[in-house]
Amino acid sequence: QGYQGYSETYINLRQRLEISGERRARGDAADWLFLAAQALVRADSIRLAFTVKRAFVETQMAEDGLAVTRQAVEVFREGERNAAIREAEGDISVYDLRRLRLERVRYEKRVADADLAASAARRELAILVLPDSGTPLGSGGPEVGPAEGTATSPAEPLLGDALEALEGFE
Question: Sign (positive/negative) of CA torsion 156, 158, 162, 163?
Answer without folding.
Answer: positive
